[in-house]
């Protein structure tokens, strides 16, 4: 019993000493980072990196890319992004469970950050978005850390997402993947606008059969851009090659987000087959599982336009009916008049009597 107590004390003592050594060797490397520039950092369980970006006043949100060229990870790398009002986090490799079983791991990831002033932006009329204002002030810092004892390298890049605002009757093409969700913002125009309609149709097409989900969400932070939580916010539809969603202004008076998320396989669209080859099922690393999506927002007919179209169709049918009645009446009127004047039906014309009489030989 005494020996067991001594061994337990020795184990606790060694663990305490090891933690002290770790704390003594642990360091945080702070870097002043630049937008649109790749920053490669190497870290382990003793090193944490923090990238601080200069504050901006742009109305567009930022897209954060974090990826690694490594194919083996002893432990995942944790990414934590701090903004004034929110914290966004995920890990590399990004794990995605398949409904058919197994796990997909993605070493390349990206997320579009919800703008710190999205509540202010959603209240602005569309014609005032280009006005530069300090009200759009935003600060971003990114921390990456791991518990791996092996050196692990990741690359970080932050870009301004310039195609965030979309308008009706324009076609947009976007690349999306399971580890690269995308979302956009649409706001209904003023009633005086030539393209105004109280409801719109969002049409999506893809040249391949990759299974994806399109979600319509209220224009407020946070944005739900994961497959696990997308069913709990707004409305969504599963799309494989073509889909459409009708959105009404009364449901989203401040506009809405169009969120596009790609499945790791097509189990969400087809329970039988899978776009992942059988040899790759289980734990695998996917670097370029991407689909190209084209979408367009089209205004629907307003109530007045609908009534005008219906009334015009009714008038057209009525005119055809009147013309038919008048034509029928005129035909019978002419036939009766012709009979009263002693007209008879024309005789049949035959070839009898018209055949020439054969002559003798000359």
TrEMBL record:
Sorted UniProt keywords: Glycoprotein, Membrane, Signal, Transmembrane, Transmembrane helix
Pfam families, per the entry: SID-1_RNA_chan (PF13965)
Localization terms from the record: Membrane
GO molecular function: double-stranded RNA binding; RNA transmembrane transporter activity
Signal peptide boundaries: 1-19
Family of the protein in this entry: Belongs to the SID1 family.
Protein name: SID1 transmembrane family member 1
Species of the source: Photinus pyralis
Phylogenetic lineage: Eukaryota, Metazoa, Ecdysozoa, Arthropoda, Hexapoda
């Amino acid at each position: 019993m005494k020996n067991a107590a001594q061994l337990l004390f020795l184990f606790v003592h060694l663990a305490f000493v090891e933690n002290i050594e770790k704390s003594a060797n642990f360091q945080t490397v702070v870097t002043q980072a630049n937008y649109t520039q790749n920053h490669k950092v190497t870290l382990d369980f003793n090193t944490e990196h923090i990238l601080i970006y200069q504050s901006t006043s742009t109305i567009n949100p930022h897209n954060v890319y974090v990826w690694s060229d490594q194919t083996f990870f002893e432990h995942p790398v944790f990414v934590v992004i701090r903004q004034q009002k929110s914290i966004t986090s995920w890990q590399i490799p990004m794990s995605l469970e398949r409904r058919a079983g197994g796990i997909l791991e993605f070493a390349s990831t990206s997320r579009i950050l919800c703008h710190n002033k999205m509540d202010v932006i959603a209240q602005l009329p569309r014609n005032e978005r280009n006005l530069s204002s300090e009200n759009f002030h935003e600060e971003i810092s990114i921390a990456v850390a791991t518990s791996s004892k092996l050196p692990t390298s990741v690359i970080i890049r932050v870009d301004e997402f310039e195609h965030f605002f979309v308008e009706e009757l324009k076609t947009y093409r976007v690349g999306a993947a399971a580890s690269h969700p995308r979302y956009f913002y649409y706001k209904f125009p003023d009633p005086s606008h030539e393209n105004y309609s109280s409801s719109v149709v969002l049409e999506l097409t893809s040249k391949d059969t990759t299974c994806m989900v399109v979600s319509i969400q209220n224009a407020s932070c946070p944005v739900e851009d994961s497959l696990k939580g997308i069913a709990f916010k707004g409305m969504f539809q599963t799309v494989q090659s073509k889909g459409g969603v009708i959105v009404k202004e009364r449901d989203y008076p401040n506009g809405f987000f169009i969120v596009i998320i790609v499945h790791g396989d097509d189990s969400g669209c087809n329970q039988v087959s899978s776009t992942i080859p059988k040899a790759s099922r289980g734990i695998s690393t996917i670097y370029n599982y991407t689909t190209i999506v084209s979408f367009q927002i089209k205004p629907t007919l307003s109530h007045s336009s609908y009534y005008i179209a219906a009334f015009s169709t009714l008038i057209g049918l009525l005119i055809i009916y009147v013309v038919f009645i008048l034509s029928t009446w005129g035909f019978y009127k002419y036939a009766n008049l012709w009979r009263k004047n002693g007209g008879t039906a024309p005789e049949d014309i035959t070839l009898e009597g018209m055949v020439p009489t054969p002559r003798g030989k000359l």
